[in-house]
Design goal:
Radius of gyration: 30 Å
Helix content: 10-25%
Distance between the termini: 43 Å
Structural class: alpha+beta
Shape: globular
Largest sheet: 10 strands, mixed
Length: 955
């Protein structure tokens, strides 16, 4: 007998107006791809899946509004999944090609290998989810130059020593005082020939750290035989500032080469005496035309006394960086010298060159970077102007050894706004030069320079005449005491030395600023674009410390605290749904099936009686009902007693799967209904604990400290060969467990001697291939699942040890107890650090929600909130002054970072660049937290406007 729903599905399929297009079908295929490989897959699931592939979105059945709403919600979660995973492809940053060098006689010679970034779609067609292209500076100096920013001009300690391999190093430590932003912590810089390593460590009052304890946080530094010696001379500050300056220049010089159609050799290109009107308009867009004679700012190697390098040049300041452009038509021209040596001397020695191609976009393909005879130039930005639509087009050529750098080009790489194009181009050029410093040639040169400088300084400060305390004393001494208490007779002398130390540091800082070499990027910036990670205030006052939480739909959060579990809704005061007798340690909202999973314990610390419970979300729609421990009994999930951890599969998959850790066993369960079934029959999916089916139990070597479910995207196409897997982490290693066969495979082990603090295993999908980002201590490591070797040649390191990691391409965010650190996932480069006291990640399932006691004042939603009568406090409005209340007494505020602002959820590929908007100077925290605008109208600088098809209807 046929199911009643089959008749409804058949009727819909017969109506052509209700059928979907190719893109919508592909979107659903991705979310349901693994359904056929699952042991619980039935013929009815096949029918439902195939039926859904032929139905238009949104479905319009007047009698089935509830079903339509469920389908839309299911589609939204699938979109979030694709946007989070699908855009991650290093191929978006170009493919490496061998470009033959063309000689003047027209013959080909051996060329160079370049990575060509043209902005073309990888699949050859318009993509639903394009590459995020928000232009942000990578490794900005005001974030990375720690010694200048945090040490110089302040009382701090410097040490010199040798490691286990007898290689000298320097160590700098400063203890920051508690303020309104965060508590006291150590900032530490380890100076080695391979570069400066940085880490921030929490300071515990009455328990200061010793030298060896701090050094143990750096790889291979815990085996040092002798403790380092402290350097008391204030002149060491100048030496360490010199070491930091080896990271690269704060100011930049870029070549600008004008080419005409048909010119294929560099001699021809450099021989253009003047440029076209379009070229003059382009150089005016880059910066101001300045008179070189008497120029007193950054000159980029040009003569400013006798016009030896031309009378004029082009100069600008971008986010505090002075930039001098070496424009070919403004440099001296010689009719007798075909090679134009004077022009090549400057442009050929620039790391990055802009090549303006006359004749429109059709001429861009004729440019070959191998025709430029320069071994020093590594990045070429090829620009053309299209007079038909008054737009600029851009392509990038990077020498093969240059690491990937952003922003990735939009698709297509067309810029109709000149200001947006300038913003994008300058960021791309600056990031390109910084990336070039990490090529083998430059890295080896920098390492030789640092090695020589450090050895010379070590010999100077470790000599017999050096005033350094003994290593035995240093091993016991704590950093909280800037210096050991001197004898009474020398106390005044020591105080005088400290004053002199600070005075010399402040003088060095002022001198660096006056010279224009200071990393004060934002200090001189009039315009500053809004960052895509800009948080919005979601809820202004929440008076309980959050233990766990998850989002429910667009406007609700469920939060577990020591005082019970609360439902927080946008625009409505929070209300309690479980009292404090229900101690919730972990919770998950599964919207696809309308259920809430919670892990509950009898005591506040994890014990043997921890159990999992299942509730319907609809149970919490009613106001006023607060559940307690007696209400938990009938919602208990069998077999889960003693669980210390659980994990669920990501939204967007076919079936909900749950893995529960029971000491040395993993219990695998699955929800009896598929996501497709629930989307069609939401009224029939009303189970709680009966909805879970037991699949199997797997034995593992140890009790895990983290679990991540990794869905295979090729299970169906591979005929079930590729199975879903579970990544588990414990002590010093990560293992991979096959869900079907229960085989345990060793995935990755920490280095011997490393601390075993495992943070996260985040599942990534790079070009549809599963990959894990394994995070331990302050290190992130990429690991492919297809083999036991890493997929990339780099691990990257955080400045602090995170508590949580979130991936939202192209960014990866680390949350610590008092800061949020944001890096690019393609290269690990830092883009922002924001200080936020008592920071707690709530969820990143859809948008990213977190809580903090940040002191900024908000014109928030408090006036719309009504006081919750069940609460005893009246802290429902922000404090009147950011300095009047300590962080401990300040209520928590809940913030949201929209996922689409980070990952670039787009429909068309045009209009990918943001427009800079005026912003006040940088706040001490580096963060700008704003009240959230109406949903769907992003205040953030996303890579493109959110398409109307993805915006919710107005309320």
């Amino acid at each position: 007998m046929s199911h009643p729903l089959q008749h409804k599905a058949a009727a819909v399929m017969m109506d052509p107006s209700r059928r979907t297009g190719r893109r919508q079908r592909g979107r659903l295929v991705r979310s349901e791809r693994v359904v056929e490989s699952h042991p619980q897959f039935t013929a009815w699931d096949v029918f439902i899946r195939d039926s859904l592939l032929q139905i238009a979105w949104p479905i319009s059945l007047s009698s089935d509004n509830e079903t339509a709403d469920a389908l839309v919600k299911s589609s939204t979660s699938s979109n979030d999944l694709i946007s989070r995973r699908g855009v991650f492809s290093r191929r978006h940053y170009g493919s490496v090609e061998l470009l033959p060098q063309v000689e003047a006689n027209g013959q080909d010679a051996i060329g160079r290998r370049f990575r060509v970034e043209s902005g073309d779609s990888i699949s050859g067609k318009e993509e639903m989810f394009g590459t995020p292209s928000t232009p942000v500076l990578e490794n900005p100096e005001y974030q990375t130059r720690w010694y200048f920013k945090y040490f110089l001009g302040k009382l701090h300690q410097n040490y010199v020593g040798v490691d286990a391999e007898k290689v000298p190093f320097f160590l700098s430590v400063v203890l920051t005082e508690a303020n309104t932003q965060c508590g006291p912590h150590y900032r530490v810089i380890l100076w080695k020939k391979t570069g400066a390593q940085k880490i921030s460590l929490t300071h515990t009052p009455n328990k200061p750290m010793t030298v060896k304890q701090i050094l143990s946080n750096f790889p291979s530094m815990e085996k040092i035989e002798k403790g380092p010696k402290e350097i008391f001379s204030p002149d060491i500050q100048k030496d360490l500032l010199l070491l930091e300056e080896q990271e690269g220049s704060v100011n930049f010089k870029f070549g600008v080469l004008y080419t005409r159609p048909g010119q294929i050799t560099d001699d021809e290109m450099f021989s253009n005496e003047t440029g076209s009107v379009e070229f003059e308009r382009f150089t005016a867009l880059l910066g101001d035309k300045i008179r070189l004679k008497g120029w007193d700012k950054y000159r980029g190697g040009l003569d400013v006394k006798g016009d030896m390098t031309g009378k004029y040049s082009v100069y600008t300041i971008y986010e505090g960086h002075e930039i001098m452009f070496h424009v070919s038509t403004l440099l001296p021209y010689s009719k007798d010298n075909k090679q134009q040596v004077e022009r090549k001397r400057h442009i050929g020695n620039d790391i990055v060159n802009i090549v303006f191609v006359e004749g429109g976009p059709s001429q861009m393909a004729n440019f070959n970077p191998s025709s430029i005879k320069s071994q020093f130039t590594h990045v070429f930005a090829v620009v053309s102007y299209c007079s038909e639509d008054q737009s600029y087009r851009l392509s990038i050529y990077s020498e093969e050894s240059v690491p990937l750098f952003g922003p990735s080009l939009p698709c297509p790489p067309v810029f109709r706004s000149p200001t947006d194009f300038r913003d994008f181009l300058l960021v791309k050029l600056i990031n390109g030069e910084k990336a070039t410093f990490n090529t083998p040639i430059f890295a080896q040169k920098r390492e030789r320079t640092l090695d020589m400088l450090i050895k010379d300084l070590c010999a100077e400060h470790m000599g017999d005449g050096c005033r350094a305390v003994s290593s035995t004393m240093l091993n016991r001494r704590a950093f909280s005491d800037v210096l050991p208490d001197p004898p009474r007779g020398s106390r005044r002398k020591e105080e005088a030395r400290q004053v002199e130390f600070v005075r010399i540091g402040q003088a060095l800082k002022l001198e660096t600023i006056v010279k224009g070499d200071a990393p004060t990027s934002l200090a001189t910036t009039g315009l500053y674009k809004r960052a895509p990670w800009e948080p919005h205030c979601f809820y202004p006052d929440f008076s309980h410390e959050i233990l766990a939480g998850d989002s429910w739909g667009e406007s609700r959060l469920i939060l577990a605290t020591d005082s019970g579990v609360y439902l927080v809704e946008d625009g409505i005061s929070h209300r309690q749904i479980f009292d404090k007798t229900v101690i919730v340690k972990q919770l998950t909202v599964v919207e696809a099936h309308g259920i809430l999973l919670i892990r509950v314990d009898k005591v506040k610390t994890t014990g043997r009686d921890s159990k999992m419970h299942v509730f319907r979300l609809s149970d919490f729609e009613r106001d006023g009902e607060v559940r307690s421990r007696p209400d938990m009994k009938e919602h208990k999930l069998e077999r889960t007693r003693g669980c210390n951890l659980y994990a669920v599969s990501r939204p967007g998959g076919s079936h909900l799967r749950v893995v529960v850790s029971l000491s040395k066993k993993l219990l695998i369960m699955q929800w009896r209904h598929s996501a497709a079934w629930t989307a069609w029959c939401p009224a029939s999916d009303t189970d709680t604990v009966d909805g879970f089916q037991y699949l199997r139990e797997i034995s593992i070597p140890e009790s895990p400290s983290l679990i991540t479910l990794v869905d295979s995207t090729v299970a169906a196409s591979a005929g079930g060969v590729a199975d879903n897997t579970i990544c588990i982490g414990y002590r010093h290693q990560f293992d991979l467990v096959n869900e079907r066969s229960a085989d345990v495979t060793k995935l990755y082990s920490l280095q011997d001697g490393s601390k075993g603090h495992l943070v996260a295993a985040v599942d990534l999908y790079e070009d549809e291939e599963p990959e894990l980002l394994l995070c331990y201590n302050n290190t992130c490591h990429f690991q492919k699942l297809s083999d036991n070797v890493s997929s990339t040649e780099f691990d990257f390191h955080w400045n602090s040890i995170p508590t949580d990691i979130v991936c939202a391409f192209p960014y990866v965010l680390a949350f610590t107890s008092d800061a949020m650190e944001i890096r690019l996932i393609i290269n690990g480069n830092l883009v922002q650090t924001m200080a936020m006291p008592k920071l707690k990640l709530i969820t990143s399932k859809n948008d990213i929600f977190f809580a903090t006691t940040a002191p900024e004042f908000f014109q928030s939603k408090s006036e719309r909130l009504q006081v919750d009568k069940t609460e005893k406090d009246n802290s429902l409005s922000p404090p009147s002054s950011p300095h009047s209340v300590s962080p401990e007494a300040r209520p928590f505020r809940l913030y949201r970072i929209p996922l689409h602002a980070l990952s670039g959820l787009v429909a068309p590929c045009e209009r990918r660049c943001p427009t800079p908007t005026p912003e006040p100077p940088e706040a001490p925290s580096g963060a700008r937290l704003l009240a959230e605008p109406p949903r769907g109208i992003s205040r953030s600088c996303s890579s493109s406007p959110t398409p109307q098809s993805f915006l919710p209807p107005p309320k």
